[in-house]
Design a protein that fits this description.
Cathepsin D, subunit A, domain 1, Pdz3 Domain, 3 domains, seven-stranded mixed sheet, 5 helices, globular, Aspartyl protease family protein
Length: 429
């Protein structure tokens, strides 16, 4: 069969439910009949698998060395290109498809999200269908283009999309200082943040000096990305407007301008995208969107300054109560006693991989490499990684208590969530 085209018998697919974790969409897909999990990332043009044990059974063949380029300090990443693979999502199947395999554990999404993710995929899902993306109900649905009815209801806004190099771009407006700029942004479902802008002093695209802090921004295909975080006065898509939205400015060392679409000024990511539901029509370069129940949610920052990753497992000795039934031989009385026993179980381990040096947490003594044992007097493994991150996005002044292990020694730290923009002195009470 010909390469690069999905086949689907029905006029539209069944709902394909997804998980939304840290603003990223995790979808189930089969590769060579093996069920895997992918991040749906409109910012990538090629499907990429990571070096995870489950991919060993995928049966990759016809491989050769290839280089991928993306955000990150190293600029490029070595990978293997494999041809002749099949993909299936919902009722749609794609045959004879190339994919790329990265043998670098640092690139995997799994440690950052705390759930198993095998790869990323983007353009290949959008190119053959009208893709319905419903953030509020957590599903996507694929529609055949020739049977799709255009959204004419006033609830839906129609915007032009520019599909360049297999990626979607749209125009928006941003107010950073005293004037409003028209900008072109990559529509990037693979970014957790609200907005990324590439600094351009000549155009007035740079952060407010009174409202900025240095921070770790995340990982790109080519390594860690650092930069500055700030807020914009206003950000507009079509007739929709957000005030005081989060924005990040990646360092120039993390951005290879020779590999970036020259008209691009940045990216709009999941923190804003999740506030709408969509129909993507790549074939006609059209986007339909309407706001959902998340539209008015406030924009928050990680006020702890701590970035955690799932770093392997830990063995935990836990108490369990075993009921012992005693029957009295001389009467019908029965007594039940609880006997304490112990069992060893496997639990996730969370490690601090980045910490903002201006944070209260850093001032109190927490450091990279510390492994969490407890959070607010509960066992750390009783939390999902996303639940701990939600605590870290709490209001300024909220007290957080962390018990950690450092080089075999257990330690307890207590600090208050700070305002990243204000460089607060650490609280000691």
């Amino acid at each position: 069969m010909a390469q690069d085209r999905y086949y689907m018998q029905e006029s539209n697919s069944k709902k394909i439910n997804f998980e939304l974790i840290n603003n990223l969409i995790i979808i189930p897909m089969k590769v060579n009949n093996v069920l895997l999990s992918f991040v749906l990332d409109t910012g990538v043009s090629k499907p990429i698998l990571f070096n995870i044990a489950e991919t060993d059974s995928v049966g990759l063949k016809n491989t050769k060395t290839f280089f991928l380029y993306g955000l990150g300090g190293d600029g490029k990443l070595e990978a293997l290109k494999s041809s002749g693979n099949s993909f299936k999502i919902g009722d749609a199947t794609l045959y004879n498809k190339d994919l790329y395999v990265v043998y670098d554990d640092d690139i995997s999404f799994t440690p950052r999200l705390g759930v198993l993710v095998h790869g990323i995929i983007g353009y290949d899902i959008f190119k053959d269908f009208i893709v319905e993306l419903n953030y509020s109900s957590r599903y996507i649905r694929l529609h055949k283009p020739n049977e799709f009815k255009r959204k004419t209801s006033r609830k839906w806004t129609q915007l032009p999309l520019d599909i360049y190099n297999k990626k979607p771009y749209l125009k928006a407006k941003v107010t950073l200082h005293n004037d409003t700029k028209i900008i072109k942004l990559l529509m990037d479902t693979g970014s957790s943040d609200a907005l990324w802008l590439f600094e351009d002093v000549n155009r007035g695209i740079y952060p407010n000096e009174e409202l900025v802090f240095d921070d770790y921004l995340g990982k790109g295909l080519s390594g860690s990305v650092y930069g500055q975080r700030s807020r914009v006065k206003a950000f507009e898509i079509g007739n929709f407007k957000f005030e005081n939205a989060n924005v990040a400015f990646p360092d120039s060392s993390s951005v290879d301008v020779t590999k970036i679409y020259k008209e691009r000024n940045g990216s709009v990511g999941g923190e804003i995208l999740k506030r709408f539901n969509y129909f993507f029509d790549y074939g006609n370069s059209v986007l339909y969107l309407k706001k959902n129940g998340s539209f008015k949610n406030s924009f928050t920052y990680n006020n702890s300054g701590i970035v955690l990753e799932h770093n392997g497992i830990m063995f935990v000795r836990e108490e369990i109560n075993v009921p012992i039934i005693n029957k009295n031989k001389n009467s019908s009385a029965v007594s039940i006693n609880q006997v304490v026993n112990y069992m060893t179980s496997v639990r996730p381990a969370y490690e601090i991989v980045e910490i903002r040096e201006t944070s209260n947490a850093y001032a109190e003594g927490l450091r990279k490499g510390d492994v969490l044992i407890g959070v607010n007097n509960k066992k750390a493994y009783e939390f999902k990684l996303s639940e701990i991150n939600e605590l870290f996005h709490g209001k300024t002044g909220k007290t957080i208590r962390l018990k950690i292990e450092r080089q075999g020694v257990e330690m307890v730290f207590k600090f208050k969530l700070d305002d990243a923009f204000k460089k607060n002195k650490p609280s000691t009470d």
